[in-house]
Amino acid sequence: MDQKNFIVAIVLSVLIITGWQYAFPSKPPQQTQQQTAAPASSAPGQTASAPAAPGAPASSGPAQQQTVSLKDALARNPRVAFNTPELIGSINLKGARLDDVQLAKYRTELDPKSPPIEVLAPEGTEHPYYAEFGWSASDPALKMPGPDSLWTADTRALTANKPLRMTWDNGQGLVFALDITLDEQFMFAVKQTVQNKTDKPVTLFPWGLIVRFGEPKAEGTYVLHEGPYGVFNGSLKEFGYSDFKDNKTQKFQSTGGWLGITDKYWMATLIPDQKAKVDVTLKGTGAAPNIKYQVDYVGAGIAVAPGASVSTEDHLFAGAKIVRIIDGYREKL
């Protein structure tokens, strides 16, 4: 009798699950005209000539270069290390790239001696995944820092009590600085400064981006989102990786908010100045297996007078999705 009831319970469970999926099929987010239009109309304070955030070329996917170990990839360029109770890793001085973030308390296997979970990883590894902050200029004659720029650091180690300053001189009278601090959890604060030593004003556009090569193995279920997402003007937008196949793009304009890419347990999220108006782009470029996903924002143009300097401050969350910690950041930021 007990066995018969058990079989009946299994049959009923299957019928319930099948019926639910039939009645409530998953649907991709509806695309508004603003989201799918080619360039979005300019936000107040932004010009139509505002340059887009850069990104790695679609052809530079990992399949087109030899994949190496994390250790070998990290050894290619000079770095500044960090080690906190939650995060271990390093910042790449080539390109000022945050591309090596590992979780100190989470492992890839049950064995406590197994490698730590990698939230962000450098180019050269199987699945590069990184964040960058920088400036763009509408004037193509201005030399701006890029992925090949080698920055100078004022310290060999970033700690919760000791920030990192990186500088880069474009040789044309503009000096760029990045001040990075890391708290004891998962948050990087990134202050960007530009000093204009020329005799002419320049207009620059601050940006931040996250790039991910390849599509991760799905670990979630229909009740848990994995992929690009963000909050724009107070509205949550979620997208599957399939929404960006064939070089598709989603565009938004927002004051504040945040954007990023989430896995089941971890996420990497950009948080611009909550008072700033930003143009947001979420896109896929290339084709499998070299497809690249990028989320980025570009702020309004900032005029830098001769002899003056300007700064912006943004944040990057790269870590575990612990509710109490995220709630604390929500209240603080």
Distinctive features:
333 residues; mainly beta; nine-stranded antiparallel beta sheet; six-stranded antiparallel beta sheet; 4 helices; 41% strand
Detail the topology: elements first, then pairings:
Layout: H1 2-23, H2 33-36, H3 70-74, E1 79-83, E2 87-92, E3 97-107, E4 116-120, E5 129-137, E6 152-153, E7 157-158, E8 164-169, E9 174-182, E10 187-196, E11 202-213, E12 227-232, E13 235-238, E14 249-255, E15 258-262, E16 266-271, E17 277-285, E18 292-299, E19 302-304, E20 309-320, H4 323-332
Parallel strand pairs: 1-7
Antiparallel strand pairs: 1-2, 2-3, 3-4, 5-11, 6-8, 8-9, 9-10, 10-20, 11-18, 11-19, 12-13, 12-15, 14-17, 15-16, 16-20, 17-18
SSE series: HHHEEEEEEEEEEEEEEEEEEEEH
What Rg do the Cα atoms give? 22 Å
Question: What topology, given as strand order, has the largest sheet?
Answer: 6-8-9-10-20-16-15-12-13
- Note poorly predicted spans: 6-48, 56-63
Net shape: globular
Secondary structure: number of strands: 20
Structural class: mainly beta
What count of helical segments does DSSP give? 4
Strand content: 35-45%
Measured as a percent range, the helix fraction is 10-25%
Distance between the termini: 59 Å
Mean pLDDT: 85
Q: Main β-sheet: number of strands, strand sense, barrel status?
A: 9 strands, antiparallel
